Amino acid sequence: MNPKLRKIYVPMSETAFYILFSLQQPQHGYGIGQTVKEMTNDEVSISPGTMYGTLSKMEKDGLINLVKEEDKRKIYQTTDLGKEILQIELSRIKRLYKNSIGEKYYD
Amino acid sequence: MTKTKTQMKIFTIADYKEEEKWLENQHASGWKLIKITLPFFYSFEKVEPEKVIYQLDFKEKEATDDYIKMYEDYGWQHLGYYLGWNYFRKKESEATSESDKEIFSDTESKIEMIEQVFKRRMLPVLTIFLAVMIPNFRGLDKLDFSPSEIVFTIIYLILFALYIWAIIHCGIKLTKMKKELEK
């Protein structure tokens, strides 16, 4: 993977993580926001400016791609690169959690 | 017939937070924004006073359909695109939470917008300044001015001063706003 991308996305912000995680299923921006709200019990909400900016950036960096456009809404999904980056992040978070409860983590 | 008014007001690119506040105050006292006529004329229509949130988003390019649609999904009405700025509003009573009252939900995206304003607005303005205003200035160093030249020179000097003021004001303010967010 491009070291520049690694620097940008590992570790990534909470917003970016939830967006990338949600896009394992194809979805549009507002839909992602609703999924994330539900998943986090309203703890994490992503406003449209932040959502739009993050999606544009991830698309440009090749983490997600446009699947189709429906009723003016752009529907995205993670690419192989996006999945790879998500996996790296997930391992990092798992290790963080395991270590925090005094356990060792082996990937 | 609906009562309307047009008001002149100047906001620089670094004053968008003040502009939002001003539009909210107008609406709260019964003046709803209908349109903006460049460079700085705001037209309002008399309505029932109401608490309405106004938000501005800077985008280099004209708003696309999918962009407007996403904001609409979130309950924001797109009012128009004026010189890089998208204007949105939402009734405060329709906001479901604190975060629903803002178009940006994290610090990174707020900082990024400031950086965009810097890159897309400040840098071009600075370039024009250096490329056009300063070389012209050098032609003014002779002493035998004719009356029309004096008028021209005074206008030029006023413009020059305004330009410098705007660059300094916006530069300092945007930098401050960014620093504040980075704390």
SSE order and pairing:
The complex is a heterodimer of chains A (107) and B (183).
Chain A lengths: L2 H7 L4 H9 L4 E2 H11 L8 H13 L3 E7 L2 E6 L1 H21 L7
Antiparallel strand pairs in A: 1-3, 2-3
Chain B lengths: L3 E5 L7 H13 L2 E7 L3 E6 L5 E7 L6 H9 L3 E6 L2 E7 L15 H31 L9 H36 L1
Antiparallel strand pairs in B: 1-3, 2-3, 4-6, 5-6
Helix pairs in contact in B: 3-4
Using the alpha-carbon principal axes, give the shape of chain A: globular
Secondary-structure element order of chain B, as H and E? Answer: EHEEEHEEHH
CATH fold name of chain A, please? Answer: Arc Repressor Mutant, subunit A
- Give the biggest beta sheet of chain B: 3 strands, antiparallel
What distance separates the N and C termini of chain A? 18 Å
Task: Give the C-alpha Rg of chain B.
Answer: 20 Å
Strand ordering within the main sheet of chain A: 1-3-2
Total number of domains of chain A: 1
Which residues of chain A form runs of ≥5 with pLDDT under 50? none
Q: Which CATH-level-2 architecture of chain A?
A: Orthogonal Bundle
Instruction: Assign the structural class of chain A, choosing from mainly alpha, mainly beta, alpha/beta, alpha+beta, or little secondary structure.
Output: alpha+beta
What is the helix content of chain A?
Answer: 55-70%
Strand content of chain A: 5-15%
Strand content of chain B: 15-25%
CATH superfamily of chain A: Winged helix-like DNA-binding domain superfamily/Winged helix DNA-binding domain
What is the overall shape of chain B?
A: globular
